[in-house]
Amino acid sequence: MAAALGACFLVLLILVALRWHPLVTVDGGISRTTHRWAVRDHELTHVFRVLTDWVWDPTTMRLVCAAAAVWLVWRRAAWWTALWLGITCAVAALVQQFVKAVVGRPRPVWPNPVDSAHYAAFPSGHALTATVVCGLLLWLLHRHGPRPALWRTAVAAALVSVVGVGVTRVWLGVHWPSDVLGGWLAGAALVAAAVTVHEWPRDGRERPSRGR
């Protein structure tokens, strides 16, 4: 799965770098439409700014991951898993910045912007970070056999976060839709690769506890 997701991300990266006309056309059409909505609907735009700047900001997501790592060490003595969690988040941040620097895609420019952002556009760091953090935490929760109600709540919260952050970035006019798609694909590929690393070989590592 990591290879398949990585291949999809690579194809998208190439299309973005080559400025493939159909992709540019779709990106532009969606972005112009959502920007018109954002300019008209001040209240919803304000809510989206709060969500993207505070709730789903990459720093907030990493702090959630750090809290999970502390909990793993404190309650489970799971040093390897906590270290693995931190390293994966750090690698995701490095990959994001490296690809941004290599591709150098400009962000959308509007005569009446409703928000601003720094660095290059592709891939969306918000979308990538939310996908990595939510994906890793969901996998860890699943390993420990959560109750059905808790699992359904966690899956719903993760889906809302990952999809929601992508919507806010396009709505606020700071990313093209393909930037968000690239963040999702890269994040999912990193999660799949990280899970493979964690499960390879398992001798001497902590085992998940079931039925708690």
TrEMBL record:
List where the protein spans the membrane: 54-74, 81-99, 119-141, 153-174, 180-200
- Establish whether keyword Nucleotide-binding is in the entry: no
Question: What highest taxon heads this organism's lineage?
Answer: Bacteria
Q: Does the keyword Repressor apply?
A: no
What keywords is this UniProt entry annotated with?
Answer: Membrane, Transmembrane, Transmembrane helix
Which residue ranges does the record assign to the Phosphatidic acid phosphatase type 2/haloperoxidase domain? 82-195
Q: Mind telling me what this protein is named?
A: Phosphatidic acid phosphatase type 2/haloperoxidase domain-containing protein
Organism per entry: Streptomyces corchorusii (Streptomyces chibaensis)
